[in-house]
Amino acid sequence: MIAKLFKGIWHALNFSRRLLVNLVFVVLIVGVVVAMMSSEEEILVPQDSVLRLNLSGMLVEQLTYIDPVDAAFDDAFGPSDKPMEVLVDDVVKVINKATHDDRIKAIHLDLKSLYHGHLDKLRDITSALDAFKEAGKPVYAHGPYFTQTQYYLASAANEISMHPYGGLSIKGFGTYPMYFKDALDKLQITQHIFRVGTYKSAVEPFIRNDMSDAAKEANKLWLNSLWAQYKEDVATRRPFDTDNFDETLTQLGEKMSTVAGDSAQFAVKYGWVDSLETDQQFNDKLVELVGADAKGNKYKQVKFKEYLASLSNFPTQPNPFTDKVAVVVAKGQIVDGKRKAGMIGGDSTAALLRKARLDNNVKAVVLRIDSGGGSMFASEQIRNEVLAIKAAGKPIVASMGSVAASGGYWIAASANEIWASPSTITGSIGIFGTIFTFENSLKELGVYSDGVATTELKSSSISRGIDPQYADIIQMGVEDAYDKFLSMISEARNLNKADVNEVAQGRVWLAPQALEFGLIDKLGTKEEAIKSAAALASLEHYEVFTVEQTLSEKEQLMQQIFGAELVQSLLPRATQQDTLQKVTQQSINQLIYKVQQSANMIELYNDPNSIYSLCTMCDVSQ
Fold first, then answer.
1. Which of 349, 425, 505, 546 is deepest in the core (most CB within 10 A)?
2. Hey, is 615 helix, strand or coil?
3. How far is CA 280 from the centre of its chain?
């Protein structure tokens, strides 16, 4: 009787489970069919409205691929620990379109959710804002506070206002990697490190608990140059000199004492903002400028994503008969194999370049790089495709974004021309190898490895350790790889090999110094690099398009299902957080993400020869 009872309960539960799963599946399918069959509601941009540039996340060259199911549930149940991303090209496109749109009368920079952006990306946006202002349209920046990234964009506004209880956080630049030596020692993990280059500090997090003096010396040089650029750009737009920036706690303390510690009054007194306004006062000011919306509560506005979506309602089809300049984006760490957008796979990025090479309509290629490097083997795979494009008679121009160092420089070196932003971090020409073995960790658990082999070469493994003679052989391979790096640059850039070695050694440079050394050709934006590529191909009329990975049929279906508005509406939404909660959550998420990224480095070390060209110091914190 008891057995039958439990059997009956099990069948009931199993039936309920299958019924629930099937119901959910049917609802999703019906939802996506209805959503796809129904015509999308047209996004209306009110006449005489304000473009509210409410950017949320981190400014990037390329959006990282996220599984659509994960994205849907992250959106439904709360913030992910991964920072959101905003495509710089989208922001620039929106501003440029608004400049010539008679319906848009002004821009409101709503930056409180903007996380981080390197100077090159911020400059692209401020250039677009400058053009908007030159068209006779004002830009207003308003927020409860301004971080360093946010303030750079805000400085391009005609007026900056801040909440009376707000504040600023402008602290300069720094690089503070995490160091794991003691943690690895406690776990009894044996580190086998091989490197070449006085300043090649990529392996320091594994062999030290702090930054070496050589790394501090090199990093201080380029960080100071980057900080000088930031100060000069902001001071040019604001009514003060570069000495208005606080660089010591004593200096900041003395200024704060003059306003009794009131951060908002500090911002006004020293020219950082023009006025203090509550959100209601700012809203009323814009209502006077453009009028109120249909509900009569807020100023007439269209948000960033809404305006961007409105532009997508009128897609322009590429002309199959027009010559093309293809842009291939290489963003993220370089690893072996295939990777989705947001990371550089040796096979996958080479495939994108190959696609451009085999397209008869493509007459020139721009390789847009935003990478601190990674696998040497994968970097060489990508460089081989660069050489193949040149051999096919098509010019290829490397355009460096925030960073193109180590492996990022490797894949750029053989291009016909190399362009970089003045704030681009590059160089770091050096090689290292790393292998972790766990023989001591296993001993602590009472686990041992023993046996026989046909050769001495087989005796080394992650469970047994590495024979010192084998380690010497690996070091020779690393030194050979470094020599190949120098030789390749010498040949590609027509430089003396000894001169290359002088500025190599793993040392990081900013683009202006790299230009002096002959490592790059010109300073300029991606758009200027595209124009140069077209000129090299003798093109007068051409179209520009980005070569992207093709999603599988399954991935496309999942994107359609979980991107459908009706299906999204069926999922519960996370409750709205107040500003303080958002700031706290964002800070925690950034810390979690940084720890995860540091830990994931070990997993991403998948070079078949365990040899890498990677700059771990190129991650600049603001």
1. 425
2. coil
3. 34
* Strands across the sheet containing 334-335: 190-196, 431-437, 611-614, 373-375, 334-335, 344-345
Q: Which of 61, 389, 484 has the alpha carbon at shortest distance from 397?
A: 389
Residue 132 has a CB neighbour count (10 Å cut-off) of 22
CA distance 131 to 156: 11
Catalytic annotation on 200? yes
The torsion defined by the Cα of 56, 62, 64 and 69, in degrees rounded to 10, comes to 70
CB atoms within 10 A of CB 127: 16
Domain boundaries, the chain: 49-170+246-312
Number of residues that make up the chain: 622
> What is the dotted CATH code of the domain comprising 49-170+246-312?
3.90.226.10
Per-residue pLDDT of 571-604, as tens digits, reads 554 444 444 445 445 555 555 555 555 555 555 5
Closest CA to 613 of 338, 350, 377, 362: 377
Q: Is 487 left (phi over 0), alpha (psi -120 to 50) or beta?
A: alpha
Per the residue annotation, which of 82, 200, 331, 363 is the catalytic one? 200
Residues 515-574 have pLDDT tens digits of: 999 999 999 999 999 999 999 999 999 999 999 887 655 555 555 555 545 444 545 544
DSSP symbol at 40: P
Listed residue (300, 296, 433) closest to 374, CA to CA:
433
CA gap 335, 346 in Å, rounded: 6
Which of 56, 375, 406, 421 does the annotation list as catalytic? 406
Q: 537-540, long-range: CB within 8 Å, 24+ apart, which pairs?
A: 537/323, 537/325, 537/363, 537/364, 537/394, 537/395, 539/323, 539/325, 539/363, 539/364
Taking every pair of Cα atoms in the chain, the longest distance, rounded to a whole number of angstroms, is 90
Structure tokens at 25: 């599946």
Which pLDDT belongs to residue 77? 47
**3-state DSSP call for residue 318?**
coil
Q: Six-digit token pair at 325?
A: 């300049």
> CB within 8 A of 589, min separation 6: which ones?
79, 80, 81, 82, 83
The upper half-sphere exposure of residue 459, i.e. CA atoms within 13 Å in the direction of its Cβ, equals 10
Return the SS3 of 486.
helix
Top-confidence residue, 77 or 362: 362
Closest CA to 547 of 380, 318, 372: 318
In SS3 terms, 84-120 reads as CEEEHHHHHHHHHHHHCCCCEEEEEEEEEEEEECCHH
Cα–Cα distance measured from residue 535 to residue 527, given in angstroms and rounded to the nearest whole number: 12
